[in-house]
Amino acid sequence: MQIMKRTVLNSLAFIAVAAVLSLTACKPEKKELGPRVSQLDGIAANWILDRVAQIDVNVELAFVESDTLLDVSSVYIAGQPMEINFDKDGTYSTTAGSGSTLFGPATGTWKFDNDEYPSFLIFNEGTADETRINMLSPIRPQDPNLAIKVNKFCNGERTVSYHLWYNRK
Length: 169
Prior knowledge:
The chain has helices at about 1-25, 40-45, 75, and strands spanning about 45-55, 70, 85, 90-95, 105-110, 120-125, 130-135, 145-155, 155-169. The chain is of the alpha+beta class. The chain has one domain: Lipocalin. It has an eight-stranded antiparallel beta barrel with strand order 1-3-4-5-6-7-8-9. β8 (about 145-155) and β9 form a beta hairpin. The radius of gyration is 28 Å and the shape is elongated.
């Protein structure tokens, strides 16, 4: 009887130690993301217009706006496409070319609405020409593309939107 109790207790102790060891041995490793990338470093470059998509915002049958996305690159990009250069000092300049009519002033100032998590670009802040353009995705230094959304208005109502994709030069 004593031997049986001792064997059961030893077995239970062994199982408890094995369980504790297996739980501590299987902890997931902490993963490091690295330093936060700068959106300012990401956008500071020269960009070439590569693709244009038009969205008819007045189509009522669409579930989401992107259901009416139509590639109109062949209409807006013929020959030499426009370029835009963003400098870290908050200035920008464009090189005239195909598609430049979609953008706005050729030179001026720019900034993000939030330098760490930008949602849109603000051009010529505080002036009569101030324009806010939605960013379709974040822009990190390693990203090859910049995607923005330009809205066009008629009598104060948005009539059409354009998604503009630029490639890093």
